[in-house]
Amino acid sequence: MKHYSMRSHLTLTFAIVAMIPILILGSFQVSQITHITQESNRNQQMTTYRLGDAVQDYMYYHRNAVETLAATITASDAAFRTRESLTLKLQSLQDNLAGFTGIYVVDPNGVIKATHSAANQTLIGTDLKNRDYTIRLQAAPKTIVSSLFRGPEGADQPAVAIAVPIYKANKQPDGFVLAVLELAPIKELVTKYDYGKEAYPVVLDHAGKPIYHPNAALTESLTSLSKEPVVVDALREHKGEGTYQLSTSGQKELITYKVIPEVDWIVWVSRSKASVNAAFTESLSLTVLLLIISLILTVLLGSYLARRLNGTIHALVGYTQRLAGGSFVERDSKAVPRGAPLELQMLADHFFRMAEQIKENQGALLQLNSELEDRVEERTQRLQDEHATLNAVLESMSDAIVLIDVNQQVVYANHRMAEIFAIPMPELAIMQEDALFERIADLLPERQEELHKLAAGPRVQGAFTVQTEHGKERFMMVSAFEVARDGRVFGRGYVWRDMTKEHEIDALKNDLISLASHEFKTPITSIRGGVETLLRVDAQWEESFKQELLEGIHEDIGRIQDLIDDWLDISKIESGAMRINPQPLRVEAIVESAMRRLPQQASEAHTQFEVQLAEDLPLIYADKLRMEQVLVNLFTNAVRYNEQHPMIRITAVADERFVQLEVHDNGIGISSEHVDKLFDRFYRVDVSSSRQTGGTGLGLAICKGIMQAHGGEIHVVSKPGEGSTFSLAIPRFRGEEEQI
Question: How does it sit in the membrane (predicted)?
């Protein structure tokens, strides 16, 4: 092997040592620049999705209000469909919900027959049969959201309309309710977000006409942008991003887009490609220049230091060789050459004196070493005991704790910290504070800038929402504090407390209040109307009419009782107080009993059941009433969410532990984005805009709680248009002694 001189080794070593941090710094800088650009693109994408969700919620809220009004008119008798009665209903919606320029009732021939105010009476008789929404509604009687149009029903301004069919008592179409939306509230909703520098939003209807565009002339002229490449890609991909050259712009733009499925509208956020790449190119050029200059200067400096150290090291080697030969007394004046560093001369002097004293102090050193070892061992044991106690306390806490020293290095973190933020303990133990905050920031869907404010004062508190790797949100309360003693600061500490349970309890309270105000309003209003009608002293009602009103009141009271029962059940499930009384049961008997308990409306739908149960199917061990409750809920949903003749097929197979009971229907099905949340409380799927289904969103959550109380499970497999299959895993009966 070839040997090199000390100078060559030192020069090469200095160069390598200099290049490593420079390359690391350069790589980190490039990574940071790339990350910033990607983060900007992600922020633009998230802003687009939030914009889409906001527009979807706005349209859903107004469409739901119009559908409720149409359902009210459909439910009323012909005597309550006079122009005066309709005007009062339209006026009520106009007064209670902002955003409508006009609300009308249109007859089956497409002519306006009632309006919401006296000021619009001149529009009564206006022929709307050639309107886009009228033609679409007559072709398929369901809720229609029109494309952008201009007409007298919209005050001759660009507008969109919601049209909902109404029916006669014999289920025949009887016209529709037409609600014309203002564009100003939609513009205010769209423009309230901060889209960043040189970025702007666009909202198009299903025909490609701009509901909102920064160039207001496009909206005013009802210009269609349906041929734009981004519109074509959005209709095909539904959401995504890309670089496009728009006909309305003279430059390439980075566009993130999303289709709102409920109304087939398209929202996008656009930003010029030049602004996206400018910061990256400029920063990368500057970084490369600085890296080259730093490398040249470091190599020159390393060569100079290597040359100086080479001579002094040679002198020191010769001196130590003479000392090793036993020359402890006489000094060699040539041991250190002239011009050597002062520190090296001092080192030689002290080294010579040390050699003279080595033999004298050797015995004393051995004795002292023995005593020192004993004392160190004792002190080490005491520190280990104290450290073990402290570590046990910190590891036993339910809160996540991390301590940072003055060099911004993690010096301690308990396993709870690693668990919450999904960081392996070996990696967490050597992290820098900035790297730790970056990992935590990746789990924060918003308010990331608030994270670094935790280091702003001696004691700071904050609240954050953490997104776990499984997609579940945790609500965390963090307390930051200085670690100090006697005026000396040793670092900072952070204590993260999981407040998810408290937050869920508060959210459940809010959901309950909101649901109560919504679900009780309709039956109570109906009961009040029926009672006020019966109490009128200026009219004589026929007995059949009175009986009809009383039956309606009785049904509404039953609905309220069902709501209360659902809430009591979900409260028992949430508190763990759900109790069951299991007993050996035949599956066939449970199914037959559940079929008899179906609500009246399900029976009237002429539901067809196909029960395929083997005769040798084992007994199940379950609570009869609770298991019937689960099946009745599944049967009712199969009838309620069905656009054809309802057919329910029931099959079962058994394994060593469970009887797997499957309920398959031919309903409208459930899309994949709703399946995972289907069993959450208060969650409802608006799968058909033409159907008035009602419900609390608690039924399937109660079913899941009942199955878990039995030690079983419930799952669903579904596709839109192909029906749904619910699978129940029910414990089988294994004998009284084994079952206990």
Answer: Multi-pass membrane protein
